């Protein structure tokens, strides 16, 4: 009898262990292991059409950091429940990691799929009792399965690709994209760019261009922003809007940043050797740098120390979105830069996620007003906002650079508001170094 009870206990433990293999500990629902099995089983059914959805909660890491893990786990479970309540018979869901969910939906056509996606988004947007004072927004990629031969890994890959490469991916609100032939062609093009990138860097096909900055009081040339351009001998000038976001995602932009930084230092040294008073050049630090704590000391500073350039001629630009995602660590980083004698500016301020409260904590020396503030669509409202930011910045002893200024009307307006500098097509587009030197 005792032996039988022992065997029963072992069997019970094994059943429990087996069930835990299928359960996500945060939501209490299915995990990816179970979802993949259901994917194989359901998609093998003849006469059924399915779509695979890859869903992320936008800015979840920032929510987790601000409100804590307990609130974050509560959100993850609430979102899972909201999705599950919208599922029909024969459909599946799983939370696979952090804020990522996979869904398998039965559909008739693409229009029906879009209607289902809107339902899912509404279900999350109108969630209550989340213990946070903001709404949740989703990033959604969908791939329509053609037949039972579809491979699970391909479905995941394609849905995620169209999600991350959507034109609306950087928008604050929810967005979705359905994988199609256009996206497939774009993906093949991106593969080609990635294969070309390293050889292009080695062969010096990447070039530093400079966009002039003009001080506004006397409208004289006062500095420049260093930007990258890719001049391929066969393809011609490669589109910046294609390769920069791509390289930011895969981390290659770090190599580009180091190249541009060194190019800027070499140019300043050249001016000094020729007896020309250098102008300050600002260089960008892309988001991927901040995945490593000591990147500045280990990679950037050694490049700087190879040259004889005084720190006053270099400024580092960090985008507003990077600062919002890493506010705590970035405050320390910017303070460290200033202690070492470097200046730092916040790029794209006013691009959609701005927090005026952030200005009191970040020790940047300059803020750059995003060009969206100077669009013709909402001209008067843009002027009101930019006027207010300039006034606040002046009281905080910060300089202000207006980006993307294209008309005399805005030049006169910004001069009246005591804006410090302008960078935009009105005074000059990004140009080769030789052309910029002629302006000097």
UniProtKB/TrEMBL annotation:
InterPro entries: Cyclic-di-GMP_PDE-like (IPR050706), EAL_dom (IPR001633), EAL_sf (IPR035919), GGDEF_dom (IPR000160), Nucleotide_cyclase (IPR029787), Rev_trsase/Diguanyl_cyclase (IPR043128). Pfam families: EAL, GGDEF. Residues 48-181 form the GGDEF domain. Residues 190-440 form the EAL domain. PROSITE patterns: EAL, GGDEF. Gene3D superfamilies: 3.30.70.270, EAL domain. PANTHER family: CYCLIC DI-GMP PHOSPHODIESTERASE PDEF, SIGNALING PROTEIN YKOW. This is Diguanylate cyclase (GGDEF)-like protein. It comes from Enterocloster alcoholdehydrogenati. The lineage of its organism: Bacteria, Bacillati, Bacillota, Clostridia, Lachnospirales.
